[in-house]
Amino acid sequence: MAPAAAQGGKKQKKKWSKGKVKDKAQHAVVMDKTIQERLNKDVLTYRLITTAVLVDRLKINGSLARKALADLEEKGVIKKIVGHHKLNIYTRAVAAAE
């Protein structure tokens, strides 16, 4: 005379998924000549420029992207729109001159 709750454990145990595995990004950590050329050529066409945009499109490290943005701003190629300690947003300098 076992209660109904005791006999309810007949179905199989839940199988837990192994989880999703994200592939490791192989981004460049040193600015070489090809990346520098692509940076100088392609950034002029971008309307919105952030660290994440450079990381995604040029496949470079985040710290390298921040240094590149600071360098481009110093040269006058891009102009800072929003300066925040977490996110800096830039745009083309030529767009503002038109």
UniProtKB/TrEMBL annotation:
UniProt-annotated stretches for the region Disordered: 1-25
Task: Enumerate composition-biased segments (Basic residues).
Answer: 10-19
* Keywords assigned by UniProt, alphabetized: Ribonucleoprotein, Ribosomal protein
Annotated GO CC locations: ribonucleoprotein complex; ribosome
Query: Is the Ribonucleoprotein keyword given for this protein?
Result: yes
Which Gene3D superfamilies does this one have?
3.30.63.20
Any Pfam family matching the protein = Ribosomal_S25
Per the database entry, which stretches of residues form a coiled coil?
A: none
**Does the entry feature the keyword tRNA processing, yes or no?**
no
Q: Which domain of life is it from?
A: Eukaryota
Family listed: Belongs to the eukaryotic ribosomal protein eS25 family.
Q: Which PANTHER family match?
A: 40S RIBOSOMAL PROTEIN S25
Q: What is the protein's name according to its record?
A: 40S ribosomal protein S25
Species classification: Eukaryota, Fungi, Dikarya, Ascomycota, Pezizomycotina
